[in-house]
Amino acid sequence: LSRLLFMMGPGGVGKTTLSVLYGYYYARCKNQKTLVLSIDPSKRLAAELNLELNGNIKSIEAGFDAAVLDQKAIFDQMMERFIPQIVNREKLKKHPLYEAASNHFGGAVEYMALMKIEQHLTEYDLIIVDTPPDLHAIDFLNRPEVLSQFFEHKIFSWLIKPAYFAAKIGLVSVASKAFSALARIVGTRQITNIIDFLYHMMPFIEGFHTSAEKMRVHFHASSSRYILIHRPDNTSYKSVLELSKALKNLGLKASCLIQNQAAQDPLPERLHPKDFLYKREEVKVQQSIEKDWHEHQNPTEKIKFHRIYQWPNLPLGKIDHAKIAIDVF
Amino acid sequence: VSKKITFITGKGGVGKSTLSCIVAREWSQGGARCRIIEQSLDHSISRYFGVPDSLDQHQAVSANLDIINVSPLGCYQSFLKHEVNLGSTFMSIMQGKGMYSFVRMLPGVYELLLLGRIVFEAKEVDHLLFDAYSSGHFLKLLATPHSLVEAGLGGRIQEMVEKITEYLRIHADIYVVTLLEDYAFDETLEMLAGIEQLNLSPLSHVLLNRVYYGTTDPEYQKTEAYEQQFSLLKKYKDTLGSKVPLGLCRLATPEPQSIEMIL
To answer: I want to staple A27 with a disulfide (CB 3.0 to 4.6 A). Which of A64, A209, B6, B257 is the partner?
Structure first.
């Protein structure tokens, strides 16, 4: 199965750029068949690599592919996988809730991201996942747990299934208190509709759950890497500290902290005087962050610190990857 | 001339949180009661003001300004308490862990609860700023109420959706924060198109952050980048036309403490 590498951090620190850089690095310098997958709906990866937004995988060069998640496309594919009977599937697809869930609702994209990665687990040596900014990345990693909570509480057997059959024989009045409570909130006719949809979608949700559990195991595998990225400023550093804590709460461990876009140290001589003052401050900040990071580490489980300096403004395929990237495996 | 609710969005890293803080502080110093709401892991707003990190609790920054970081569970509980008036039997079922696991699993629900919470939190103050998600997630958030009605939900949810939509239509506007850089601005244009499609009709503004063009500092005026910023500024202004108001946030120092805003 593919090894997984997650690029995580607040917005604007260079997650997408580093995902592409590492894609080139592992494909060219380490001979790994690599997929860079963006699950961030901001589509930065698409712009960077000229990708289409239909979720299709594009070959960037030999051994290096890339794709952007297309929520709707993968939802439809998963329908085919988990609901094989065409009649049932087509009926569900016509349901008004289907369009909303597969295309419009927030929160569905995180489920789809899980499915997309799982779909390609056997095809690549390495999958680099370009995640959405901070909180949303944790939300994604936590999805298997959200699904498993739903199953642990046996919602299907005590709520959905009885309500479905009660409605079928026209005896909504005998349905559970929970059903009545929901009916008051979303409307009596509508709750029957929702229950009907969920009842028939159960194989799909169960399929998700199974895949999500598989992904959860993979998240915890020793071959998975979580890279925290920040820029040399205290705000983005604080954000990655929180991310690191949130990972720990999920039972995962950050592999290293990357300080991206760091100023050259020592500073080059030809600088505008104002730039010089600015850059000198930057260097001070980046050093203090490094110091703080090392001081607050638990000595038994030290997480490495890597600094990546600003590199010349060249297309990402043309830079010296071996010189900039640091092997994280 | 600001509306009651201001959503601050934009590409990651353009300075949404910092601007939320600066704008809220300015407005509150002008005498208006302001509140910032965020939903984040890193408590960036409370850190900016140096008040304790907390979830679902108001933290006072000054006499006229407070902040709150909300959680999914908090929004759900607030929804049960303030939006639906069920009797105590129903209430205890809805508050149970099982029911929450159900609600949490369903896509679209949390987004609605968050919007409901924003409207609720806005009622106690003159201005509420929401330090919102970046582009893609933000559009999904705003699209949720409409999608729920399209999907055929009714009852209290429908009432709530109508209330939220109407409230946002009248009382909300959106600030899209961006930079004087083409890649950031292109994403902003996409964002504006996305907002327009939603037909919510809150007013959008574009705020260009980290601008030093127009500064009186002679050192900056000599640099090449200064001229470059001017030509970009002109280009962006022409692209947006008169439909979308454009504001500048001038950068005073590398870590911005004060910002000059022209709206």
So the answer is: A64
Any A CB within 8 A of B99 CB:
yes
- The four Cα atoms A149, A154, A158, A163 give a dihedral, to 10 degrees, of 70
Q: Do B105 and A147 contact (CB within 8 A), yes or no?
A: yes
CB distance B7 to B132 below 8 Å: yes
Reported pTM: 0.89
Measured CA to CA, the distance from residue B28 to residue B5 in angstroms comes to 14
| Distance between B59 CA and the closest CA of chain A, angstroms | 20
Helices vs strands, H then E, count in chain B? 11, 9
pLDDT digits 0-9 by tens, A266-312: 777 777 776 777 788 889 999 999 999 999 888 788 899 999 998 88
- Contact (CB<8Å) A235/B86: no
CB-CB under 8 Å, A177 with B90: yes
Whole-complex ipTM: 0.85
Strands (DSSP E) found in chain A: 3-8, 34-38, 58-61, 64-68, 126-130, 225-230, 256-262, 304-309
| Phi, psi (rounded to 5 degrees) for A325 | -75, 150
**CA dihedral sign of residues B142, B144, B146, B147:** positive
